[in-house]
Write the structure tokens for this entry.
Amino acid sequence: MTPVQPDRSERSPLKKGPIRKAIQNRWVKNQLDFSDENIGFHSGPQKRPGLRLALWTWLSVTVDGLLLLALTSFAVVIFSVLMKTSARYLVFELVNQPRLGVIFGVMFTIVFWTYLIFMRVFNGATLGEQACALRLGQPIQRMQSGYILKVIFRTTLIMMTGVFPLPILSLLFKRDLAGDISGLKIYSLNF
């Protein structure tokens, strides 16, 4: 007994022709069109304006800070295992000797600054910003050669003015002041 072969002409109502080619071209165009909502920048900052955007920015920085604090704690534990001492002893030394605490604070600040710059340059956002659906700069800005310098300037500006004064002023004025100064604003993704 031979199996029944389906009629191939009924399977595809669109045979090779201009209609099928137009549908395929439109599908390819939609897949490669970066201005659509595929990347979430269609509406930009209108999704979370002013105060809400500033609060989400604070939340993203908190997530990044906690992540780096956890990695630092892990590094202290690994260091204590390698040096065959207790982690408690290392923490007491940091607390009892202010000079070591200052060195630790400076190193943490440098690592945090480096983390923010590298993640924003190579990934477009830090892990905290990704979790909060934020991006630094629009896609067209990230393709420009001056983007790296703007990221460095914005990050340094926030770190040099202190982590709190500029964001608090941004909350009061309900706008991204660091973005106004550096020319690189933070945007909310459109989901």
